[in-house]
């Protein structure tokens, strides 16, 4: 498939490292906010993240690397239909083409429903796939507000594709208890109280892993710009350490970052989201270089 290269390039990376054919990494903006049930505006998240990324310094201290030199191309945003199931199909088609071209895909939402399409495409491409979901909410309702593709149902739809592991959870409905798997669900209080859950997370994951990060996994004191903030979330280094250990032991084959709801009066969360993408990519591609 031929892709248009989006002028709002992630990271203001030099042009020589933004060519689709040579790039190892493809950023796919997915500006969809069709099923949000509280604060709306996550469709503005991809542009806010891209705008903020222009202010990043591109050397990563902790990995002693410059991952942008592997090539990071920003694709034209997905034109999302209003219907969430139709949106998932469109995202899947775009993600499938990117993955078939051998790129590492980074989906930028948009609400969390966008993850279903990318995961579906990744499961077609990679055998033995599982999803590692970082989130404040379980998102395992079978249906919500008349739709099976509501943002509150994301992991129920992903479960129909491949296994998943949840980390950072601290809010759920009692109706979700029947789908709760305690071998695969790790609550925020368990992680923050020093419980050694890392080996359990690694054990529950397959070798090929897709990482899905809903930004409300963070505590709202550092990430207030989400549609459904929850107190008691993870801090930056707790999340990074968990991801680092997963990257070390597993093969991360794709990722997304969702639910950024930008606030014009506070751009810091936009930058944090952009930096998170770069930090995770730096870890993943440092491992690829070493191996």
Task: Give an account of the 3D structure.
The chain has 291 residues and is of the alpha/beta class. The protein has a single domain (10-290), classed as Arginase, Chain A, CATH 3.40.800.10. It is 32% helix and 15% strand. It is built from eight helices and eight strands. The protein has helices at residues 45-53, 84-100, 115-125, 154-159, 188-192, 198-204, 236-249, 268-290, and strands spanning 25-30, 72-74, 104-109, 129-134, 164-169, 185-187, 208-214, 251-258. An eight-stranded parallel β-sheet has the order 2-1-3-8-7-4-5-6, sandwiched between helices. The chain is globular and about 50 Å long.
Beta-strand content estimate: 15-25%
Largest sheet strand order:
2-1-3-8-7-4-5-6
Order of helices and strands: EHEHEHEHEEHHEHEH
Determine the CATH superfamily.
Answer: Ureohydrolase domain
Task: Please identify, by name, the CATH architecture.
Answer: 3-Layer(aba) Sandwich
Give the CATH topology: Arginase, Chain A
Number of alpha- plus pi-helical segments = 8
Biggest β-sheet description: 8 strands, parallel
Structural class: alpha/beta
Oligomer: single chain
Share of residues in helices: 25-40%
Cα radius of gyration in angstroms: 17 Å
Write down the overall mean pLDDT: 94
- Alpha-carbon distance between the two ends: 30 Å
Q: Characterize the overall form.
A: globular
Q: Class in CATH?
A: Alpha Beta
Number of domains: 1
**Uncertain residue segments:** 1-5
Number of strands: 8
């Amino acid at each position: 498939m031929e892709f248009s290269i989006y002028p709002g390039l992630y990271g203001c990376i030099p042009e020589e490292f933004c060519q689709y054919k040579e790039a190892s990494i493809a950023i796919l903006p997915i500006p969809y906010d069709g099923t949000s049930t509280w604060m709306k505006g996550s469709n503005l998240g991809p542009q806010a993240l891209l705008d903020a990324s222009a202010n990043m310094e591109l050397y990563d201290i902790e990995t002693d690397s410059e991952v942008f030199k592997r090539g990071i191309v920003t694709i034209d945003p997905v034109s999302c239909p209003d219907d969430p199931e139709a949106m998932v199909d469109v995202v899947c088609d775009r993600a499938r083409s990117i993955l078939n071209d051998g790129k590492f895909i980074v989906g930028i939402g948009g609400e969390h429903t966008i993850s279903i399409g990318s995961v579906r495409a990744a499961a077609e491409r990679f055998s033995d796939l599982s999803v590692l979901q970082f989130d404040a909410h379980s998102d395992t309702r079978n249906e919500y507000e008349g739709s099976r593709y509501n943002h509150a149902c994301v992991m129920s739809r992903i479960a129909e594709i491949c296994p998943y592991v949840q980390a950072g959870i601290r809010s759920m409905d009692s109706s979700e208890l029947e789908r709760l798997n305690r071998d695969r669900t790790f609550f925020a209080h368990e992680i923050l109280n020093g419980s050694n859950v890392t080996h359990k997370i690694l054990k529950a994951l397959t070798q090929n892993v897709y990482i899905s990060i809903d930004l409300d996994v963070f505590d709202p004191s550092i990430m207030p710009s989400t549609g459904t903030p929850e107190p008691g979330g993870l801090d930056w280094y707790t999340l990074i350490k968990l991801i680092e250990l997963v990257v070390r032991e597993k093969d991360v084959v794709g990722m997304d970052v969702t639910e950024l709801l930008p606030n014009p009066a506070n751009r810091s969360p936009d930058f944090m989201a952009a930096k998170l993408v770069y930090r995770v990519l730096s870890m993943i591609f440092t491992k690829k270089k070493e191996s």
